[in-house]
Design a protein that fits this description.
Number of strands: 12
CATH architecture: Alpha-Beta Barrel
Shape: globular
CATH topology: TIM Barrel
Order of helices and strands: EHEHEHEHHEHEHHEEEEEEH
Radius of gyration: 19 Å
Helix content: 25-40%
Strand content: 15-25%
Number of helices: 9
Structural class: alpha/beta
Distance between the termini: 29 Å
Number of domains: 1
Oligomer: single chain
């Protein structure tokens, strides 16, 4: 097996695969005006067969974990079929989804039966009114019921993503900690990232995850070791808590040194970095099964051009206009 490796000896075990740009929420830091199609009009998203081919190629090159992203992945009517198709690859041991959670209560049991192994739900506030203000949707209780349904369906742990925002939720740490004290939830605070469309919001609301980390360490939380196919979160645990806290801090020095993930967009472009430049087209090599060797060669060659770091600290957000564009 060829292991995907770049010029800086980083190995890539983790693929984030966007399957749609469309989202039905209007989160203030991502799509405040709602979803609007971009680029080529009516450009279709990857088909089930194209998804099967691209994940087969990545699996044969050492990928152990795939995360389905969007937009909102569960808006795809063939979402369960996509899960089953990816799970045809025995090399892929973990298959997760990042979702806004509005379909969890209804469908999570079906997704688990299809082969899904992990769920991330985006919740930026535990206050229903504030949740509505941030997302543009009055779905807080529906999403929370979805988390209960996920645990009832047999998932041992749920990850919850919370974008850390000054004067919005950064002062609500104790509320979040109380929530996870007796629940198997890994709550992940993600630093607000600057995007092309979100500069003023970033300048107003960005706060470093270091603020949270310092509080956790002062209260006896312990930093856990990272496994090779884990995402970028620094994870902390405490003997008095069933839940965990994760911190994703892309502005911290050396954040990129442990990069282990690549991205494929919903229209079939390979992106070497969430904040990189134009992606590498793969779709012309996803037409037939007998193109896999050429597909693998193109992916390997592209990795030679992966940069050592992003340039967020310089205010360079690349082509990422919003986080639904490549899949966050």
């Amino acid at each position: 097996m060829t292991q995907l490796t770049d010029a800086f000896a980083r190995k890539f075990y983790y693929l984030r695969l966007s399957i749609t740009d469309v989202c039905n929420f209007r989160c203030s830091y991502c799509l405040p005006d709602g979803y609007k199609p971009h680029g080529v009009a009516n450009k279709s998203f990857l088909s089930l067969d194209e998804i099967r081919r691209v994940t087969r190629a990545f699996a044969s090159m050492g990928t152990e974990k795939v995360r389905l992203t969007g937009g909102e992945p569960s808006l795809r009517r063939d979402f369960s079929d996509i899960i089953a198709a990816i799970r045809e690859n025995p090399e892929i041991r973990q298959l997760a989804v990042t979702t806004n959670g509005y379909r969890l209560a209804r469908d999570v049991k079906t997704w688990r039966e299809a082969g899904l192994t992990g769920i991330n739900v985006s919740i930026d506030s535990l206050d229903a009114r504030q949740f509505h203000a941030i997302t543009g949707q009055d779905k807080f209780h529906q999403v929370m019921a979805g988390i209960d349904a996920t645990l009832a369906a047999g998932f041992e742990r749920v990850k919850v993503n919370t974008v850390l925002m000054r004067d919005v939720n950064h002062h609500q740490l104790d509320t979040f900690l109380h929530w996870i004290k007796d629940r198997p939830i890994q709550l992940r605070f993600i630093e607000l990232m600057e995007t092309g469309e979100g500069r003023s919001l970033f300048q107003k609301h960005h706060v470093s995850g270091k603020v949270v980390r310092d509080i956790l360490l002062s209260r006896g939380w312990v930093h856990q070791l990272r496994k090779r196919s884990d995402g970028p979160a620094q994870v902390f645990c405490h003997p008095d808590y069933q839940g965990e806290i994760g911190l994703i801090m892309p502005y911290e020095k050396d954040f990129c040194s442990s990069c282990n993930r690549l991205r494929v967009s919903s229209v079939g472009n390979l992106h070497l970095c969430l904040f990189g430049e134009q992606g590498v087209a793969l779709r012309d090599l996803l037409v037939q099964d007998d193109q896999q060797e050429a597909l693998e060669a193109r992916i390997s060659h592209a990795l030679n051009h992966k940069k050592q770091t992003h340039f967020l600290l310089d205010g360079n957000t690349g082509i990422t206009q919003n986080l639904s564009f490549i899949g966050g």
